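Following the same procedure, sequence and fold were stored together, as reproduced here.

>
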Amino acid sequence: MRWRRFALRVDSLDLPLLMKNSLRSKTLSPEEAAAYQAPFPSKEYQTAALQFPRLVPIRPEDPGAYENRLAIERLKALELPVLLPWATEDPITAPAEKFLRSVFRNAAPPLPVERAGHFIQEDAGEEVAAHIRKWMEENSV
């Protein structure tokens, strides 16, 4: 909800600053910061990013809520093995970890990634990649 309220208040995004405030264990280099900003050179390019939080259903009657419930039921029926790495310091996915594990019947044991926030690929990319490689080898995925 904080992200939703933020997106309603601002008219443009400073992606390097957002990334800096979101990362837990890494600092972006100037080149990395520029790469995150590159798709959004001005506020005219940021409309979709600012609208996205408004599209996430937060009430049962919101557009998309019914489709989300259908998708969850389909995911529950999957027989595929699933690895769910989750960042312990992510205010979005960390609280949802137990719910996600209830959706995927064949989920591997929990894989908490410490000192990682929402952008887990930046905070712990190498660590997560190593877990994925090991898991795939062990499960012949």
Observations:
- DSSP finds seven helices and two strands in the chain.
